[in-house]
Amino acid sequence: MIRSISRLTALGLLAFVAACASSNSRDTEVSRFHLDKPIAKQPVYLKPADGTKADSLEYGQYASIVSAELAALGFPQAQSPDAPLTATLGIQRGLQPVPPKRSPFSIGIGGGSFGGNVGVGGSVNVPVGGSAGGQMYVTQLAVTLIATDENAVKWEGTAVRTGESGPESPTATMQALARALFQDFPGPSGKTVKVADPVAAE
């Protein structure tokens, strides 16, 4: 079993998605966890967190965007699963009701902690206390870097992008998420930051 970096990861995800949901902008909320140790730049093999999506065109398009960001950081894509690093890639997207102002609510996308149980798809959760009206477009990108020989997580991060004015194209959204997720890699561990990105819909 892959060793997780933090047992608080799942709780942190709920907290920062809730914060993100309260915004009307298209900023991206990013949360990352790592061991504050250098990660050697090595080839990385990408695979979907949901293995059934490996051959889908949708996954292939998203994986190419993430791969380009990793390559720019010095982690070129490998074609063999025996590569020194493995990156699991998960995407969730869907619609959620806009939460009421200044009211406590619970929000989630998919389930589980970073690095698992995340696949290409979407789910909807209704905020506690009802809705302020309208719907919010939510997309999540989760990436986990694993040392293949150790089967140990070295870095994991999740980026969530929301907007109430209408959906961006899937490509524009994924580019914004991947760019924000790997900005200043490895980024601060255990913190949530907001990354402004005015990527326009195609």
Give a short overview.
This protein has 202 residues and is of the alpha+beta class. The chain has three helices and six strands, in the order H-E-E-H-E-E-E-H-E. Strand 4 and strand 5 (152-163) form a beta hairpin.
Features:
202 residues; 20% helix; alpha+beta; globular; six-stranded mixed sheet; Double Stranded RNA Binding Domain; single chain
CATH architecture: 2-Layer Sandwich
Oligomer: single chain
CATH topology: Double Stranded RNA Binding Domain
Flag low-confidence runs: 4-24, 102-131
Radius of gyration: 16 Å
Q: Enumerate the strands of the largest sheet in spatial order, edge to edge or round the barrel.
A: 2-3-4-5-1-6
Query: What separation lies between the terminal Cα atoms?
Result: 41 Å
Map the helices and strands.
Blueprint: H1 9-21, E1 28-34, E2 44-48, H2 57-72, E3 85-97, E4 135-147, E5 152-163, H3 170-181, E6 191-195
Parallel strand pairs: 2-3
Antiparallel strand pairs: 1-5, 1-6, 3-4, 4-5
Helix pairs in contact: 2-3
